[in-house]
Amino acid sequence: MRLGVRVARRGRFDNLAEIRTLDPYDDADRDRIVTLTGRHDFPWDLDQGTAIAFLRDYGVPSIARLLDRTKQFEGDGIKRYDDTLIFQEEAIADGIDSPRAKAATERLNRIHGHYAIPNHEFQYVLATTLVGPVRWIEKYGWRRLDPVELVALTRFTTRFGELMNITGLPDTYDGYLRLLVDYEREHFAHDPANTRVTEATIRIGRQTAPWYLRLGFRRVTIALMDEPLREALGMPRQPRALVAGVDLGLRARARVLRHLATPRTAPYERVHPTYPDGYRLDQVGPSKMLDELNKQQTTQQTTQQTTQQSDTKEHSVA
Hints:
It is a single chain. The chain is mainly alpha-helical. It has 2 domains: 2-285, no CATH class; 290-318. 73% of the residues lie in helices and 0% in strands. The protein is globular. The N and C termini lie far apart (74 Å).
């Protein structure tokens, strides 16, 4: 048994060993590190940290009111959650500067273009997508993140933000952490919209969770919230025993994974309830916007092709 544990542990750190040979300031290495960290070593943890990031957004009344007005969580909540994760997947799959990632971020920008969202809100939401997963892994991951991973995740996040035309972004993880903490100190406040969007999101999570996790899902979700977040969302305080039990269970999971699990041999692939047979990018986005989004995409592609043909003709004449 002792030999088996040693073998498992030795294999368990193979991805980390590769990560430490890579340069997070090289774009190709950055993308490889993000893949190894997010799709091999910590896929479940990344999802949980991202889920907490969603909830933090709702602690800002202006963000929650916009989401509440769109009613996407009430009428098409599972699709919206799936689509949000898909945009993340498309950015990671072939690298953040790949044609695949750029097509996804262009579509995301067209969706956001329907709303008057200030740059500072975009900055904060982007910060939550980095800080949320990092905090989760630091607390409940089976190993700590290496400094190389922090640099790569930060550079990846900043590049994603640049493709979304967000300005004034930090260039270090500590900078994103300060942005998040300062923004929440200034903007966190309870509003009825915060609670409505939170409850709708919890219902979505419960519907998509395995059957054995559905009982008590709401209470466990609230137990994972820190006090400033819980209060801003208007959620009821949970018993201390439940909060401690959830924390203990997640730490126990980390120890089991650290000592007994073997590393993934292939990247983790999510299964999206909205798209059980897989998805196409033209299916992604709010249902009411799909026709318009796809028409815009077709027009843009036609314009690009016409421009390329014109350039080719001019080059041939020259």
